[in-house]
Design brief:
The complex is a heterotrimer of chains A (322), B (392) and C (231). Chain A has helices at 8-37, 45-82, 92-96, 102-128, 135-161, 172-176, 191-210, 214-241, 260-285, 290-318. Chain A is mainly α. With 231 residues, chain C is α/β, with parallel strands linked by helices. In chain C, helix 4 (116-129) packs across helix 5 (145-157). At the B-C interface, helix 1, helix 11 and helix 12 of B face helix 2 of C. The structure holds adenosine-5'-triphosphate and magnesium ion.
Chain lengths: 322, 392, 231
């Protein structure tokens, strides 16, 4: 048997995903039943049973969602640990690239988390009303998410069964590093422009969220997400590593850097999720979502502060910038 | 403050109905105890090995003939020394000595104690070693396993080695190696290189292998290439290969155990499912009453979720603490043999406590997700009890 | 306050055991009125009460309480309605046997969002009113029938509901306790509560504060006497 599959973390991870997928499958079957036979105006016993069954679906989704929030960092931790087993890999960056499934899997996980959060918001609105107005909509939405979840599960298995421990992979400095002056930034950005954009977009997110410009706020959040990713990898990360050439989104998840990566990426992702979630709630479902907005702004501000703090602390300690 | 009332009520119910959960807690504690013990042992072994291997040389070279290692000429040392980027080159005599009457063997290591580096390493390994008195007579340092074995055969102070020429060589047992090194030094004997040469009957200018370090990691592959250019009949062993091999070995043992344990986990889930279906069915009336006085399905689900979470956490903490005591305080009787079994001399290892957050997290997920998943459906079934139930 | 329109309830609908417990019931009750529901065993009294209290859902028809259609509420809203507006006193008291009197009384308020201190104060007051304070920390299973009933009353009234529904409240009580119960009902009536009592206890037949007596038979309402109000 493949030594990757014998690593503790991989076994735990795959078991967890399997159990959750099994539950999701039950929820999926229940949802199909709901979609077929739901009729809120009927007074039949069957309709009451369906109503109860809708609670099973939401319980499962809520439960799975909570655990997926835990399992995403665990997945990252797992691949980070695997870097010991795979020649050439110094951190998760190389392991994710060990086969073609890694990157899509990671992206899919983030998308699914976001969609499930949206589903939960929609569900809570639905429950507030007196006639389950969004039941069909949220059921179809879940069917969509379920297909993504199935893909994710498939990718999980494909990914972990196709990691070679004999083929050396590239380490992060090769994946992200600049080779001879060329820089890896998109849209012809350089570091100063990237930073200006980073802070400007953050201000824009705050503004659009506060002034309730829902569509603008979604666009601003998405843009901020992309720019923040590059800003962390190409600028703030170098201050975390205190090394101007070390460009990597994964190494900061390791213990030498006090696992700060989990906090940093967690704040960013959660903040973005909530801000987009709040905007969608506001524009499509006419819900104010005040507390969602407040939390999302808080998280994003913490993220920006944390990033900036690394630069500030470095400057105070050494009197120069990298 | 809002949850205050809810938590108050939750504790009330939990305390009044302890009996309902004791069964589940018991099975869980056993499951977690076994799981954590095994994983604690394997991760402790891994980190002890890494610690011990740390001080070893990066490379070992020896001469081969027909694919078998044969004696290496000491003259190779001078050639190796000429390669740039190499430091601490030392000769070594390394081999198994068979104790004739029985099928036991010791690992005999002869080191050049007049070499600055080797003697420094030895002194750091054996704290307070008096090198003068050690070298004044023919003496050796022995691993715990060897010491026990020898004293069982009435060699308390001296042991007489039999050389290939048939003569005997009497060597004083100077002292035992510290027990922290038992994992690899259990059956090891360390002695001055000349003594080892005599016991194994090697020629005056022969050693078994040559060790050296390469401080710059990036040079490693380069150095291997150079060695193969220098000698045609050489075998190079890297430390990182050994480390990886050992690491994988213990990882395997942990991983194999987990896979076997999956069967136990599935059974565990079925038992929990049954158990909670039963427990909850006795609560039908109670839940019906709560529903009738205004608790919603969501409220009941929340109650059940918190109840289960408390059971999960309590069992987890209990199981892990028990496993910690068993492995790190009592040195894991029985179970340690699975990991250390098959060694030449009986080995007693004191496990060095290693508690990694990631490991605990893994144990928690491995147990808690199946547990919660198994309880979820029974909990839902009871939560949707119609409030009408209260009237029946 | 309450209007029941054309409500029927069929148990086990669509199976050979189908049983029509309520047949097109119509009923009106104004705010602050007290109604007695009479009828032999099996006539459908409890079933009707459970529908009004949103413990169950009708097979057809409409029930409106205070302008809210409660015959077709999703669970979250039905529960909120029960938690806010209904005080139900069950035939068999239906207390949580494992808990003490006080713990039973606070149960309806746990999810109200109030903190435990306020809840306990409210419970203390309600127990005081129901004359069960002296047994507050006693286990329910150790109480006598009359005490159980008073505990049930304290629990039903702890959240100050507008509508109080009693299902055979005196069926398990002796005459003395029954009379005490009627006294409590009267005081509730005076405080402006709307009250519905299902019973076949003759003690209730000649009560002066009752506004309406409804007779049921085989799931039908066979007679409703409106007694002109005395107050
Ligand atoms: N869940 C049920 N399934 C089937 N039949 C039921 C159910 N609940 C009640 N019934 C039937 O409905 C009829 C009315 O019951 P209900 O409890 O309303 O009577 P009641 O007037 O309260 O009688 P009592 O005075 O004995 O309490 C009874 O014949 C009973 O058997
Ligand atoms: Mg009845």
């Amino acid at each position: 048997m493949n030594e990757i599959l014998l690593s503790n973390e991989v076994i735990v991870y795959l078991l967890s995903e399997t159990v959750l997928y099994f539950l999701l499958f039950i929820a999926f079957l229940a949802t199909i039943g709901l979609l077929k036979r739901w009729n809120f105006d009927a007074f039949t016993t069957e309709q009451f049973a369906l109503e109860n069954r809708s609670y099973l679906v939401m319980t499962i989704i809520f439960f799975v969602m909570m655990l997926k929030v835990v399992l995403l960092p665990y997945f990252v931790y797992t691949i980070d640990n695997l870097s010991d087993l795979i020649p050439g890999a110094m951190c998760g960056a190389g392991v994710v690239k060990a086969n073609e499934y890694g990157n899509p899997l990671l992206a899919l996980k983030i998308i699914i988390l976001f969609l499930s959060a949206l589903w939960l918001s929609m569900n809570s609105i639905d429950l507030k009303e007196k006639n389950y107005p969004y039941l069909k909509l949220k059921s179809w939405f879940f069917v969509l998410i379920f297909f993504l979840l199935s893909t994710e599960y498939l990718l999980d298995i494909l990914y972990f069964t196709h990691i070679e421990t004999t083929n050396p992979v590239s380490c992060c400095s090769v994946i992200f590093g600049q080779t001879g002056g060329a820089n890896g930034l998109p849209f012809g950005l350089d570091i100063p422009k990237l930073l200006i954009l980073f802070y400007l977009l953050f201000a824009l997110v705050v503004l659009t969220t506060v002034s309730e410009l829902a569509v603008m706020s979604i666009i601003a959040s998405l843009l901020f997400g992309v720019i923040a990713y590059y800003a962390v990898v190409y600028f703030f990360g170098t201050y975390i590593y205190e090394l101007p050439t070390h460009l990597c989104p994964f190494c900061m998840l390791q213990d030498h850097y006090f696992y700060v990566g989990y906090l940093l990426w967690g704040l960013l992702l959660l903040g973005l999720f909530l801000s987009i979630d709040a905007a969608i709630m506001q524009s499509f479902f006419k819900q104010p979502a005040k507390s969602l907005k407040r939390i999302s702004l808080l998280l994003l501000s913490l993220f920006v502060l944390l990033c900036s703090a690394y630069v500030a602390v470095y400057y105070l300690k050494n009197g120069v910038l990298l | 403050m809002n949850n205050n009332a809810f938590l108050h009520f939750l504790t009330l119910l939990l305390f009044k109905q302890k009996g309902k959960h004791i069964g589940a807690v018991l099975i869980s504690v056993i499951i977690i105890f076994l799981l954590s013990s095994v994983l604690f042992i394997s991760s402790s072994l891994q980190s002890m090995l890494l610690g011990t291997l740390e001080s070893q040389s990066d490379f070992t070279v020896s001469r081969v003939q027909a694919g078998k290692a044969i004696n290496t000429p000491s003259a190779w040392m001078d050639k190796v020394l000429e390669i740039n980027g190499i430091s601490q080159v030392a000769p070594r005599i390394y081999g198994r000595y068979f104790f004739a009457p029985r099928e036991e063997s010791f690992l005999l290591v002869g080191v050049d104690l007049f070499d600055e580096q080797s003697s420094k390493e030895l002194r750091s390994l054996v704290k307070g070693l008096d090198l003068k008195s050690f070298l004044s007579t023919d003496s050796m340092l022995v691993g715990e396993g060897v010491k026990t074995f020898l004293s069982e055969h009435y060699y308390k102070e001296y042991f007489s080695f039999k050389t290939p020429q048939g003569s005997f060589k009497k060597v004083k047992i100077h002292q035992a190696l510290p027990s922290g090194t038992n994992l690899i030094a259990n059956d090891m004997i360390i002695m001055p290189i000349e003594l080892a040469r005599e016991i194994f009957g090697l020629g005056e200018d022969e050693v078994t292998d040559i060790t050296f370090n390469v401080p710059n990691d990036a040079e490693w592959d380069n150095i291997i290439g150079k060695l193969h250019l220098l000698f045609y009949d050489v075998r190079v062993v890297e430390k990182r290969e050994i480390v990886k091999a050992y690491e994988n070995l213990y990882n395997y043992k942990g991983g194999l155990f987990l896979i076997l344990y999956l069967v136990a986990m599935v059974t565990f889930m079925l038992i929990l499912y049954q158990r909670y279906s039963m427990v909850y069915s006795t609560e039908r009336k109670e839940i019906g009453i709560l529903r009738a006085v205004g608790w919603s399905i969501k409220d009941i689900l929340k109650l059940k979720f918190y109840e289960t979470a408390v059971v999960v956490l309590v069992s987890f903490v209990l199981g892990v603490i028990l496993a910690y005591l068993y492995v790190f305080i009592w040195d894991a009787p029985l179970l340690s043999q699975i990991f250390l079994g098959g060694a030449n001399l009986p080995n007693h290892v004191s496990f060095v406590p290693v508690l990694e957050f990631g490991l605990l997290g893994s144990i928690f997920l491995f147990y808690a997700i199946p547990f919660l998943a198994a309880v979820l459906i029974p909990a839902w079934k009871i939560a949707v009890t119609p409030p009408k139930e209260a009237m029946l | 306050m309450i209007s029941v329109e054309n409500v029927s309830k069929i148990f086990n609908e669509g199976t050979p055991q189908a049983f029509e417990a309520l047949k097109s019931i119509d009923l009106e009750l104004a705010k602050g009125e007290t109604m007695i529901l009479m009828g032999v065993s099996g006539s459908g009294k409890s079933t009707l009460l459970s529908l009004i209290a949103a413990l169950d859902k009708p097979s057809s028809g409409k029930i409106v309480v205070e302008g809210e259609l409660i015959s077709k509420l999703p669970d979250l809203h039905a529960s909120a309605y029960r938690a806010k507006s209904i005080g139900f006193i069950f035939q068999h008291f239906n207390l949580l046997e494992a808990l003490s009197v006080e713990e039973n009384v606070i149960a309806p308020l746990i999810n109200s969002g109030l903190d435990i201190k306020t809840i306990k104060e409210m419970a203390a007051e309600s127990m005081q009113n129901a004359a069960i304070s002296h047994k507050a920390s006693q286990q329910v299973k150790e109480l006598s029938g009359g005490e159980k009933q008073r505990c049930a009353i304290a629990r039903a009234l702890v959240h100050e509901p507008k509508l109080i529904i009693c299902d055979e409240p005196t069926a398990n009580l002796d005459r003395e306790n029954s009379l005490k119960f009627i006294e409590i009902l009267q005081s509730l009536h005076q405080r402006g509560k709307t009250i519905i009592v299902a019973t076949h206890d003759p003690l209730f037949e000649a009560l002066t504060f009752v506004d309406k007596v409804v007779h049921m038979e085989d799931g039908n309402i066979v007679g409703a006497d409106s007694i002109s109000a005395h107050n």
